[in-house]
Specification:
Length: 436
């Protein structure tokens, strides 16, 4: 299959950096070096991650929460986790996904934090360990098992479930007596009225997340119609075509662009939140799309000066959350494979996930950990609790979804039509059918 990967390091939770402990040659070392000697005798597990350890006074909530769970593993297991870290400067033109793939194929590290397209591909190659036997796996939400299982093996487990939704300025909707949109037609009507009232571009967008519209419209019935597995098997075997599912989604996105409700040219240049975020916070743009955690983070949308509501994306079945997730994976041939498995069992235990969820205020990977939910997120949370959602990453599909959809949508932002986008996915399907 063609290399169609999306760099998604921004949604990955960060990991911790390593301190290399060197030996002391002095046969009579001073008392201060005894700790170093003791630590040298501990087991070492190597992790590869997007970022290094935070400074002692850092306030990055996501990274701090992750470090807390890793610290738990070190203390409980009496080992040291050494962190090999990705930086764009070190790897030049190689993305985080590219580097992870190379390192896993070369057995350079024990465990990794991976994007869905990477663990899907490497899981198919048999390079990732089956995590389903871990104690922590017994408490996972079903959505994780569905999304991260490849050829019957659970190849990745995340700290959290990442849910995307529409972030709406409720004050503006109230001002123009607009109801929160549930269907594609509802959203089109809302955008029409907002545009007539001076909001030239009602939906603020970036070059990463517009695929959420396509996923919600296209796959609402597939994931909520009672025959999910059968339909995915039909897609994997070629009995069904992706174009038949995706046509309504691409058609809807094209209509949003053609009517000027989304500025395609600007969206293509925008990074997530950094681009469209300021106008949303300044109440110049009534609608944006983002992930759950953005509503809890003061530096993103958590301190908006207006009433904000986060809902699902429009679909034939109503407001539809779109879910994707990263995950921790263990290299099948890792030098410290069993120790790495033990590390995951601790850092992804209910106890650790409770700490992570409370610190970061997210949807926990464990069904036993209660999710903290601000008022703005309750509409989205209600749908997820009902078991209503669409998966934007599903390792059970032979055609990788999240990264490929992002790249095809970018072509639409550059002027590609619906048929051209559908042909891209049908070609990807044909390529997947040729693979053994």
């Amino acid at each position: 299959m063609r290399n169609r990967k999306k760099t998604a390091a921004a949604v990955l939770a960060a990991a911790v950096a390593a301190c290399t402990i060197t030996a002391c040659a002095d046969p009579k070392p001073p008392t201060g070096n005894l700790v170093n000697k003791q630590e040298q005798e501990k087991k070492i597990v190597n992790m590869f991650s997007p970022m290094g350890k935070t400074a002692a006074n850092a306030e990055n909530v996501a990274r701090t929460a992750q470090e807390m769970t890793l610290d738990m593993a070190e203390k409980e297991l009496g080992l040291i986790i050494e962190y090999n870290t990705y930086t764009a400067q070190d790897y030049k033109e190689k993305t985080y996904d590219d580097v992870c793939t190379e390192r896993i194929r070369s057995n350079l590290d024990d465990f990794y934090l991976l994007n869905p397209d990477v663990f899907q591909q490497l899981g198919r190659e048999g390079l990732l360990a089956d995590l389903s036997g871990l104690e922590c796996a017994k408490n996972l939400r079903e959505v994780i098992k569905t999304a991260n299982t490849v050829d019957g093996k659970l190849v990745a487990i995340p700290h959290e479930v990442v849910a995307y939704g529409l972030f709406i300025n409720q004050d503006l909707f109230d001002k123009f007596e607009l109801k929160l949109p549930e269907t594609p037609q509802d959203l089109l009507e809302c955008c029409k009225i907002l545009k007539e009232n001076g909001y030239e571009t009602p939906i603020g967008a970036n070059r990463w997340w517009l695929e959420t519209f396509v996923f919600a419209v296209s796959y609402a019935q597939l994931y909520n119609g009672g025959s999910t597995q059968e339909e995915i098997e039909a897609l994997n075997s070629g009995k069904a075509k992706y174009s038949d599912y995706l046509r309504p989604g691409f058609t809807f996105l094209k209509e949003l662009i053609d009517k000027g409700y989304i500025d395609a040219e600007t969206a293509y240049t925008y990074e997530a939140i950094d681009g469209e975020g300021p106008d949303f916070l300044a109440q110049k743009t009534p609608i944006v799309m983002a992930y759950w955690g953005a509503a809890n983070t003061d530096t993103l949308y958590g301190k908006a000066d207006f009433n904000m509501q986060v809902i699902g994306f429009p679909s034939s079945l109503g407001a539809m959350p779109v879910v994707s997730m990263t995950g921790y994976s263990v290299c099948e041939q890792a030098q410290h494979r069993e120790d790495a498995m033990d590390v995951l069992d601790v850092m992804l235990s209910d106890e650790a996930l409770q700490i992570f969820a409370e610190k970061k205020q997210v949807i926990s990977a464990s069904k036993n950990v209660e999710t903290y939910c601000v008022d703005a997120l309750k509409p989205l949370n209600d749908r997820i609790n009902e078991g209503v959602y669409v998966l934007a990453s599903n390792a059970g599909m032979k055609v990788e979804q999240w990264g490929n959809m992002c790249l095809v949508v970018r072509k639409m932002l550059q002027g590609a039509g619906v048929e051209e986008c559908l042909e891209e996915f049908d070609q990807l399907q044909e390529e997947s059918l040729k693979e053994k």
